[in-house]
Amino acid sequence: MNVHGIAETPSEHVRFAAYLDMLRHVREPDEVALVARVLADQDRTMARSAVLRHLDLRAADLCDGPAYPHWAPAMAEAVSGHPFLVQRLREWTLLRAVALDQPWQEDDLLASSDWLQLKAAAGSHARAIELLAERGRTQRIRNAARAGLSGGRPSRPRRSSRRPTRP
């Protein structure tokens, strides 16, 4: 977005960009309060989208480190009134358990979203990949997991070489 386009840019777009910038630069002690402030915006869809992006970036950074177990409960409290955000945080926690070879339940992984199953299928945990290759929610997930098992790329259905006939 350039300066000349700001006057023509809808206010929710400007706020979204501002929220992303604030969330990107927030100090750790102020993070939960800022997330709560963003989620209080009148445009709930935009606010949840900004927080989701932040949550995904932070969780990815913290997932395999020692700070995650302290960060996740605080973030869970901040997003508690937003079921999709709560679910995404729960899935990050499950992905962390899988990646770090901590205890996790097969049923939890199988009941998770396509997003998490694809992330887990792209990981390196053999038990999770084998489970998803066999019982993943979609063909895409099963193919991605099988590719992970074989060390290759997911196979794609072949397109027909026949061209459609014209009337």
Automatic annotation (TrEMBL):
Region of interest (Disordered), ranges: 142-167
Superkingdom: Bacteria
Compositionally skewed regions (Low complexity) per UniProt: 144-154
Compositional bias per record (Basic residues), positions renumbered to this chain: 155-167
Protein name: HEAT repeat domain-containing protein
